[in-house]
Structures are given as C-alpha cells and as structure tokens.
C-alpha cells in the first residue's frame, strides 16, 4: 500500500482552505451564541435565528431577494441559452467579437458596472427600485449562462442533428428532442450559477436600488456599519447553506451531464 507523504503543495492547499473558510466557520459558530457580541462565546442558543424570523422587515427583504434572483436567473437563462446557440452558428471574427462582448461584464469591475447602470437608468428616467435591480441582475447573469451553456453546445455532435433531419424531423423537433436534451445540464448549471451570483451581489445592487426596496447584501452592509448584530451572523449562515446547496446541485448536474455525454459517445462509436 502506497503511503501518502505530506508535500508543500498539500500544506499550501490546506492553508488556503483555512484562510477561506475559517472566517465563515467563525461567523457560523457565533450565530449560535447566547451572547450579543463575538468577543466571547456564551453557550449554544437559537435566539438569533428566532430574532431573524421575527424580524418582518428582514423577512420582506429576503422575499425580495429571492424573487429578484429567481426572475433574473430565469430570464437570463433563456436569453443566455439563445445567445449561446446564436454564437455557435457564427464563425471567425464575428464569433470572437461576440464572445468578447459577452465577456465584458465578466471582467469589468462591479463598481464600474453598477455606476454604468445607475447613469443609464437615470438617463432613461427609470425609477430606482425593483425594476432597475431586476434588469441589472439579468444583464450581468446573461454572460454567466452563455459561458456555461456554450461548452455543452460545442460538445454536441453535428451528426445527431443531421440524423434527425434525415429521419424527417422539423427544425423545432430537432431542437426540442435532440439539441435541448443534450445541453440541458449546461442550462441548469447556468441557471444555478446565475442564481448564486444574483443572491450575493452587492456592488451592482448598491448602485441601482432605491428607497423602499433593498436586497439582503445591501441590508447586511447597512446593518454591519451600525455595529455588530449576531442576527446578521444567523442570516449569513443560512445564506452560506443555500449557496452550498446550489453548488452541490451544480456538481451533480454537471456529473450527470458528463455521464450522459459519455454514453452518447459510446453509442455513436458502436453505430459506426
């Protein structure tokens, strides 16, 4: 049996994970503290979770955040999937230009994007609030969906679509029964990633939100500036769990998509 030796790369990886997750663990542990500060742990208690669920303003903000995330992710997934299909049909410089434009929102600083949306909505006379936040979230989620769906489209064998046409399938039948099932894992992955980005976005939302409407990230920032409140710890712990579930869901969808692609590849090889 081979013995595993501790290497410098392993130590470095362990150190990175400790730096990343130690603050989160510290925050979660104190969300169960009976005290009101994070200076000392005062014993296990669920009082801060009870205070969180009794806070009607926070419940409303949570509801607003979930609605924004679900709607933005759904619309962005539809537009992003259609955009990825359109990019697949282009070639050469046109394709490269479209991919470059798609990546602009991915590489641009969030502060610049948020300020740009603020100026844009102000010029159009759009009142800052639910609509401005929703449109902004749709805009920065679309490139994420495109980047998740496009690889699945590239993996799709053209012979499957050609075979469908040879068997008399219409364009819609080929899309709905051949293309769409093949890229569904990428679509779901894009939806989950867009949902995660929308839920925890702060910089863009901070610029485009208005009076009477806010999201969790902006509310947490506002409360944190007023002082330590362990209710924020409880809320952050729940958000971390939700984000973790989304990541796990994305993992299983990607794994299922890879397994399905291998099965299709094997069947094509047997047919040939």
Automatic annotation (TrEMBL):
<dbReference type="InterPro" id="IPR035906">
    <property type="entry name" value="MetI-like_sf"/>
</dbReference>
<feature type="transmembrane region" description="Helical">
    <location>
        <begin position="178"/>
        <end position="199"/>
    </location>
</feature>
<dbReference type="InterPro" id="IPR000515">
    <property type="entry name" value="MetI-like"/>
</dbReference>
<feature type="transmembrane region" description="Helical">
    <location>
        <begin position="130"/>
        <end position="150"/>
    </location>
</feature>
<keyword id="KW-0472">Membrane</keyword>
<feature type="transmembrane region" description="Helical">
    <location>
        <begin position="58"/>
        <end position="87"/>
    </location>
</feature>
<dbReference type="InterPro" id="IPR051789">
    <property type="entry name" value="Bact_Polyamine_Transport"/>
</dbReference>
<keyword id="KW-0812">Transmembrane</keyword>
<protein>
    <submittedName>
        <fullName>ABC transporter permease</fullName>
    </submittedName>
</protein>
<feature type="transmembrane region" description="Helical">
    <location>
        <begin position="232"/>
        <end position="253"/>
    </location>
</feature>
<dbReference type="Pfam" id="PF00528">
    <property type="entry name" value="BPD_transp_1"/>
</dbReference>
<keyword id="KW-1003">Cell membrane</keyword>
<feature type="transmembrane region" description="Helical">
    <location>
        <begin position="99"/>
        <end position="124"/>
    </location>
</feature>
<keyword id="KW-0813">Transport</keyword>
<feature type="transmembrane region" description="Helical">
    <location>
        <begin position="12"/>
        <end position="38"/>
    </location>
</feature>
<feature type="domain" description="ABC transmembrane type-1">
    <location>
        <begin position="62"/>
        <end position="250"/>
    </location>
</feature>
<comment type="similarity">
    <text>Belongs to the binding-protein-dependent transport system permease family. CysTW subfamily.</text>
</comment>
<keyword id="KW-1133">Transmembrane helix</keyword>
